[in-house]
Amino acid sequence: MRKLLLTGFEPFLDHGVNPTELIVKKLDGKTIGGYQVIGRVLPVEFDRSAEVLLGYVQELEPDAVFSLGLAAGRDKITPERVAINVNDGVRDNKGQVPVDEPIVEDGPDAYFSTLPIRKMVNTLKERGIPAEISNTAGTYLCNNVMYSVRHYLEKQGKSIPAGFIHVPASFELSVENIRLPGWPLETIRKAVEIAIGELE
Ligand code: PCA
Which atom number of ligand 1 is nearest to the Cα of residue 18? Predict the structure, then answer.
């Protein structure tokens, strides 16, 4: 059976949990849409997140790479269209704060997602889950891992689907911070399963 590497992130900044960590642990080992899901959690560290992700790609040789991250404050499931060659962020979990640095010295400016993002958004909306394509993954770790994996696959000449999806805060995060729209974790999980189901 084909293998899907599904990654989430550990908690970061003042977020007590990261729903993407909980979801990848829940979906690890499941079969969804013809793919065996292998769930892994990444650190939120500028000098390590991509290395850990690429280590899993080398070890597992997946047929698709699907990374998830929390976008606290967004109120839709947002597949990212593009990742740019920039690290510029608030502090990561090690306290690093890069300013205007390239992810890959002399790398291309940007990479597009190779996930079926339009189909994912259309199907999510048909199933009653708010979704839209996002045209910026930011310049923090989510953008970093999407850029890094697309760069790696491009260099290897591997044309497998790979990209990133941001999800809203879960309900418990919105209890910690009442300004955040918070979704039930089960709804976010269901949305991720629907999106995976759109892979060929
Ligand atoms: N979201 C962050 C990094 C980790 C996560 O879950 C981001 O959007 O870059």
Answer: 6
**What residue's CA is closest to ligand 1, atom 7?**
142
Q: Among residues 65, 41, 35, which one has the least CA distance to residue 153?
A: 65
The CATH architecture annotation of domain 2-197 reads 3-Layer(aba) Sandwich (3.40)
CB-ligand 1 contact for 42 (6 Å cutoff): no
Residues in the chain, pLDDT under 50: none
Query: Positive or negative, the Cα torsion across 164, 156, 44, 21?
Result: positive
Task: Name the residue of 6, 12, 53 to mutate for ligand 1: max ligand atoms within 8 A of Cβ.
Answer: 12
Residue owning tokens 């300013």: 99
What are the boundaries of each domain within the chain? 2-197
